[in-house]
Write a structure and sequence with these properties.
about 850 residues; mainly alpha; two-stranded antiparallel sheet; two-stranded antiparallel ribbon; 41 helices; 4 strands
């Protein structure tokens, strides 16, 4: 046991190291204090001394002539020493010493729970000590409960007046509830350590199971006081809010503001504010523990209703309260439940209870907004509630995704009738209506759920999805349109504040948008396959509205100052770019019976009679659109490429569409310049890619226009204006068309026309001369000249000539090989390898 003087020196070292009361000491003194504290950690009687320290109600140290209060610092240090001892030396203690250590820590906890006036520091310091004490109690419980510490639950959850740590019934939040906070933190830590087995090797599986079994057996003693405390503190929050509202109304009726209150009024007003915040803080602590219970403890802990104590109903009711983010934490608890394996009754209870609960929460939010004189749908309110809305969307979608089996297995849902069908339908309506939110992150949280629902054949066959798919499709089509982040920086976007709250920066947004578009492709195709009428109607309306609004690039913003044309950041370009993916995915996902001329049942024929005129009008709108701006031509090319899925069945606009793309291949800059700009090169590359994509999809439909295609190709190839990449795209396009020609003579003639330009280049005198000998070939490539005169490689004329010769030879060879390969692959699929055996003699 340390002497009194040794303990005083230890306390002085603690005071110096912690800088208590702002004392100023020399560096050498601080170093010596640190060394003293480190040496104490190896002192054999350190645990006994620490137990004695934490048992004191207040601790003072004499520094010079001053008494310095080191209660918090000394107890934290002592508790840290004990915590370290628990890890390395606790197992060597006998039963008596273990009990004495446990009693000492409980005594320290009770001192915090029942502070006497002026004996302990304020609530902030006591809270720090309380968290440390709770950590030690949880460590002891992990080693002792339930076998050797059978009174653990009663020691923790009995009222202070009965020797426990729990607050007295009806106690207000604050000093009197520190003990309850210790208990809640301790329960949370125990639950974490006993259930996060994938990340926790602190205790063995056997110990973990023993503790969980013990906790479950004592649940009837654990849950009631927690529920009662939650009810009491939430009631205090509501009561204080109501009182504050009445005070504000009283001031307003007298033409005064909060700043004009009398001193007595200020005291009363502040008291209610403090009461609301203290109660809200305690509710947050309770929900933190309940969240762990929801994720790890038996589901009956939350779902069982006994003596009027219903945790699920309480969590649903707490969705209305925004003080201290209580509603967000309530959603977090429900999120943990939604990820569990709920049985059928538990699942349908949540599904049927959430819509009315959220309706009440929405009304409560609207009431709060009206009390503040703010529009409930204003940007400020949306920003304020974004975290709640986002977590709500995630929780709601997780509940469905994790329990699809309950939906598919229910016969009433499959038949489209009954209370369970109504419950699921109402719940899906709630999810789909959430997606009308102006922030895309709300949609982002649900996309996996909707894709999962649409990919489940058993659910697709029911009537439960169809009423909601229109809202779903519209929401995702709106949110995959890229936001111009320059507008956010300049605060020109109508939802700038909301978007800044939703994403950290432009990079974060672009990453989110890429993931969203990738997943949305499946969604669009699935909706088009299940509900072609809904999908075509929406995409037709979207494109018609968009083309009417931006036909000539209106509002013509963010222009290129050099030529007064639109840029990639112009509003018209961004809007049209966002419509391309839905159009392509919807057209590719539609079932063939929607467009072909087959004979089907009455229902399908009725749908087809609606869809086909819309698609025809849609195709004509895109084909007849003739923009003059380069970037609008780029966007039109992407829309034309998307029509390839439609042209498979209705090719009347195909020739005009292909002719437009071929025309764009020769686009030049405005005004003309010697070297093509990057924008023109991008357009030409896109046109080439689009031509290849169309030809691979509908080559047989291009065969009737072989002559026109051949003439157009010859004109483009002979112009000398195409880059090697454009030429390769054009040859690939023509090769695809050639493979669809059934008549061998016509096919051979067409192929001859296609490759004639390449053959002429290879047959030219310069190339023929170059391949007559190795010396000539090296000279043709400029290697020989560079060897004799290295300075020639810096001559622009020489470099330009060698580059042109190289491109002429190898581009021609590459084009011949590409055409030959594609023709060979097509010939292998034909009878007799494509040879006209019947015509051979």
């Amino acid at each position: 046991m340390m002497s009194t003087s040794d303990i005083e020196r230890l306390l002085q070292a603690i005071a110096i190291s912690s800088g208590a009361n702002g004392i100023i000491v020399a560096h050498q003194q601080r170093l010596e204090a640190f060394q003293s504290l480190e040496q104490f950690k190896s002192y054999p009687g350190r645990v006994t001394s620490c137990i004695e320290l934490i048992g004191r109600r207040s601790i003072l140290s004499v520094i010079g002539s001053d008494n310095v209060d080191v209660t918090v610092s000394a107890k934290l240090y002592a508790l840290g020493i004990i915590e370290e001892f628990l890890k390395i030396g606790y197992s060597g203690l006998n039963e008596s010493d273990r009990g004495q250590l446990r009693t000492s820590i409980l005594l320290a906890a009770r001192q915090l729970s029942v502070p006497s006036a002026g004996a302990l520091p304020g609530d902030g310091s006591r809270r720090i000590l309380a968290i440390k004490v709770a950590s030690l109690l949880s460590e002891l419980a992990l080693r002792e409960f339930p076998q050797r510490w059978q009174s653990f639950v009663s020691d923790m959850l009995s009222p202070v007046s009965n020797g426990g740590l729990w607050c007295e019934k009806g106690a207000d939040a604050g000093d009197a509830t520190i003990g309850a906070k210790i208990c809640l933190e301790c329960m949370k830590l125990i639950t974490e350590d006993c259930t996060d087995s994938d990340f926790n090797s602190k205790i063995s599986t056997t110990r973990r199971n023993d503790i969980l079994l013990g906790m479950n057996e004592m649940s009837s003693q654990i849950l009631p006081p927690i529920f009662e405390l939650l009810s009491k503190q939430f009631g205090d929050v509501v009561s204080s809010k109501a009182t504050l509202q009445q005070m504000n109304q009283y001031l307003a009726s007298n033409g005064r503001t909060v700043a004009q209150m009398t001193q007595d009024e200020q005291v009363q007003y502040q008291h209610q504010l403090d009461r609301r915040e203290a109660a809200g803080s305690l509710v947050v602590d309770i929900l933190g523990t309940i969240e762990k219970f929801c994720g790890s403890m038996p589901l009956d802990w939350m779902f069982k209703v006994e003596d009027g104590k219903d945790f699920v109903a309480a969590l649903l009711h707490l969705l209305q309260e925004n003080v201290a983010n209580i509603q967000v934490l309530a959603v977090a608890c429900l999120q943990q439940l939604s990820m569990r394996k709920l049985d059928e009754n538990q699942f349908f209870r949540l599904v049927s209870s959430l819509p009315p609960a959220l309706f009440e929460a929405s009304n409560a939010a609207a009431l709060r907004a009206s009390e503040r004189g703010v529009d409930p749908n204003s940007i400020d309110m949306l920003v304020e509630q974004l975290k709640f809305h986002r977590s709500l969307s995630k929780m709601g979608s997780t509940l469905v995704t994790a329990h699809l089996a309950h939906i598919t297995a229910d016969k009433n849902i499959a038949s489209g009738k009954g209370p369970k069908f109504d419950a699921v339908s109402n719940y899906l309506r709630l999810l789909s209506e959430m997606m009308s939110h102006q922030s895309g992150v709300i949609c982002g949280e649900q996309i996996n759920t909707w894709v999962g629902l649409l990919r489940d054949p058993a659910i697709v066959r029911t009537k439960v999805l169809s009423p909601h798919l229109g809202r779903v499709l519209t929401a995702y089509m709106n949110h995959i349109v890229k936001v111009n982040w320059d507008d956010i920086y300049e605060q020109e976007h109508p939802y700038s504040a909301l978007i800044e709250e939703s994403w950290d920066d432009n990079d974060d947004y672009n990453e989110w948008l890429g993931n969203m578009r990738s997943k949305a492709s499946q969604l669009f195709r699935a909706i088009a396959n299940m509900e072609p009428e809904i999908s075509v109607t929406i995409v037709h309306s979207k494109l018609r509205t968009m083309l009417n609004a931006h036909y000539n690039g209106e509002p013509r913003d963010r222009l290129n100052l050099a030529n007064n044309e639109l840029t990639v950041k112009s509003t018209a370009c961004i809007q049209i770019e966002g419509a391309t993916q839905p159009l392509d995915n919807i057209l590719s996902g539609m079932p063939s019976w929607v467009i072909d001329n087959g004979s089907y049942d009455e229902k399908r024929m009725k749908i087809r009679s609606i869809v086909q005129p819309l698609l025809s009008e849609l195709a004509k709108m895109i084909v007849s659109w003739t923009p003059s701006d380069l970037w609008l031509k780029f966007r039109r090319t992407t829309l034309l490429e998307a029509l390839k899925h439609y042209w498979k069945y209705e090719p009347s606009t195909l020739p005009q569409g292909v002719d437009s793309i071929l025309t764009y291949l020769s686009t030049k800059d405005n005004p003309p310049r010697e070297e093509l700009s990057d924008d023109v090169i991008s357009l030409r590359k896109k046109c080439g890619v689009s031509l290849v994509a169309v030809s691979k999809e509908v080559p047989h439909l291009l065969v009737p226009w072989l002559a026109q295609l051949s003439d157009s190709a010859k004109t483009l190839l002979s112009s000398g204006d195409l880059s090697p990449t454009n030429e390769m795209h054009l040859y690939e396009f023509l090769s695809c068309v050639a493979t669809a020609v059934e008549n061998p003579v016509d096919r051979s003639n067409f192929v001859a026309d296609v490759v004639s330009n390449s053959i002429q280049k290879i047959a030219s005198q310069s190339i023929q001369r170059s391949i007559q000998s190795p010396e000539n070939f090296l000279a043709f490539l400029g290697i020989a000249q560079a060897g004799t005169d290295p300075s020639c490689v810096a001559n622009p004329e020489f470099v330009r000539k060698v580059t042109a010769d190289f491109s002429s030879l190898f581009s021609s060879l590459n084009q011949l090989l590409s055409v030959g390969k594609r023709c060979h692959e097509a010939a292998r699929k034909r009878a007799n390898g494509g040879l006209p055996v019947g015509r051979l003699t």
